[in-house]
Amino acid sequence: MIRVILLVLVIIALSLGGAWIADHPGSFSVDWLGWRVETSFAVALAVLVVGLVALAIVVRLLSGLVTGPKSFLRRRAERRRRRGLEAMTRGLAAVAAGDARDARKLSARAERLLDAQPLADMLAAQSAQLAEDPAEAERRWTRMLEHEETAELGLRGLAVMARRQGDGAAAVARAREALAKRPGTRWALETVFEVKLAEGDWAEAEAALTALERHKHLDREESRRRQSALEIERARADSAAGHHDDATTRARTAVKLAPGRPEAAITQVEVAIAAGKLPVARKLIEQNWGAAAHPELGRLYVTLLGGNTTPTERVQRARDLAQIAPTQAESRLLVAETALEAGILGVARDSANKIAVADRDTRAERIAARAAEADGDWQSAAQAWHRAADARPAPGWICSRCNTVHTRWHAVCGSCGSFDTVSWSRPATVPAAMPATTGPAPVVGSAAATPPMDPAAPGRPPAAA
Ligand SMILES: [Zn+2]
Q1: Of 191, 248, 353, 379, which is least packed with CB atoms within 10 Å of its CB?
Q2: Is residue 407, in this structure, part of any structural domain at all?
Q3: From the CB of residue 277, how many other CB atoms can be counted at a distance below 10 Å?
Q4: In what order do the strands lie in the sheet with 396-399?
Q5: What is the 15 CA–ligand 1 centroid distance (Å)?
Q6: For residue 201, is it within any domain?
C-alpha cells in the first residue's frame, strides 16, 4: 500500500517536473574541438539519462563475460558435492537396513562424486562387509589406518571383522593398537574383555574390566557384580590347580563383592572342601542356611562332609542342617530327598507334605509321589504326580539370555556365550506332561531340576553385541 502511494507520488513528481521543464526549455550548447552542439536543456538531459543506462548495461555484460565460467564451475561442483553427500547418506542408510546391493552401488557413487577418501572408505568397507567380501572390507579398513583421524575407526572395523571370523587373537591385537594410541578406548577394552572371557582367560578379562571401571565406562555396582563372577571362576581354577590359599581369598572376595550370589557362597564351600577344611565348609553352610538356603549347599552338607556315611547318618545330617530354618521349603526338601534315598519313606512323605502350598514346586510333588509309590500308596502317588504336572517348575542354573539350563553355574553361558547371565532361577515355562506312574521313575529332588544337557563349549566367541 505504502509502495503504491510512493509510486503515485513519484509519477506525480516526474510529470510535474516534465511539465515544468517543457515550460522552461532553456538552451544547451557545447563548443569543443571544432564540434558545436546546440539544443534545448530537456533534450540534453534525456540524452544524458539514456547514455548512463546504456553504460550500465555494457558494464553488466562485460563483468558477466569475465566471471561467468568461474561461477558455472562452482555451481557444478556444488551440485556434485550435494549428490555425493546424498549418495553417502543413502548408502549409510542401506548399510543400516542390511541392503548389501544398494549399499555397494551407493558407496561407489559417493566415492566417484566426493573428494573425501576416508569417508568413502568407511562406507565401502561397511558395504563390503555386508556383501560378505572380507578381502575388500579389510583393504578399505586398512587404508583408513593411513589417516590419523580415521585410524581408530579402521582398527575397530578390523577388530570387529577378526572377531566375526573367530580370530580372537587378531581382534585383541587391533584393540591393543587402539589402546596404545588412546588408553581407555571403550570398544577396545570391551573387545579385550569379551575375547578373554570366551577364552577362559579370567585374569586378562579381569584386567580389562578394571580398566573399564577406571575409565568410568562402567558404574561401580555393575563392575562389582562382574568382578565377583570372575573371582568365582578364578577361585575354581586356583582350587583345581591346588592353589588353595589363593582360591580361598578369591572366593571370599566374590562373596564380599556380591553378597546375594548363591554361586559365590557355594564356591566358597567347595573351595574349603577341596582344601580339606571340612569344619570350615560345614560352618559356612550353616551360616548360609538361614537366609540363603540352597539345595547345592544342602547336598554338600549331607554327602561330602565326613566321607563314608550311612544313609541313616545322612538323614540325620539333613535334619541337623534343617534345624537352622525348620519351616523353610529347602530344609524340608533336603530332609525329604535324603530320607527317600535312604528308604525312610515315612520321613520322606511327611517332610515333603509339610512344605507350604505357596512354596511347593515340582521337586516337592515328585518326592511326595515317589515316596508314596515306594510305600505302595498308588492313589496318593497318582494325586502327587497330577499336582506335579501343574506345579511351579523347579529352579535351576538358567541363562537369562538363551534360557539354557546348566548343571552348574558358569560366568560365561556355554550355549550363547553371554557373560554373567546364568543365575539360580525358575524357567518361565511349566514342565510339559505328567509322567506315567508305571514308566521309568523320574529323577528325584533337586536333581530333577537339571535337564541332561550342559552344552558348555569352551572357546566359543560371545554373541556379537
Ligand atoms: Zn545363554
Answers
A1: 379
A2: yes
A3: 16
A4: 405-406, 396-399, 422-425
A5: 95
A6: no
Tell me which residue range forms the domain holding 409. 394-425
pTM to 2 decimal places: 0.69
> In whole angstroms, what is the distance from residue 165 CA to residue 171 CA?
10
DSSP-assigned states of every residue in 101-142: HHHHHHHHHHHHH---HHHHHHHHHHHHHHTT-HHHHHHHHH
Count of domains in the chain?
A: 1
Q: Sort residue 33 into left (φ over 0), alpha (ψ -120 to 50) or beta.
A: left
Terminal CA-CA length for the chain = 67
Give 176-225 pLDDT, tens digit per residue.
999 999 999 999 999 999 999 999 999 999 999 999 999 999 988 899 99
Dist. CA 403 → ligand 1 center (Å): 6
| Region of residue 242 (left: phi > 0; alpha: psi -120 to 50; beta: else) | left
Q: Is the dihedral of CA 153, 156, 160, 161 positive or negative?
A: positive
What is the distance in A from the centroid of ligand 1 to the CA of 80? 50
- Assigned domain for 327 exists: no
Alpha carbon of 318 to ligand 1 centroid (Å): 33
How many whole angstroms from 143 Cα to the centroid of ligand 1? 37
Taking alpha carbons only, the member of 311, 245, 308, 233 closest to residue 276 is 245
| Residue 100 included in any domain | no
Q: Separation of 174 CA from ligand 1 center, angstroms?
A: 27
Which amino acid does the sequence have at 402? C
What pLDDT score was predicted for residue 444? 34
Determine the distance separating the centroid of ligand 1 and the alpha carbon of 402, expressed in angstroms: 4
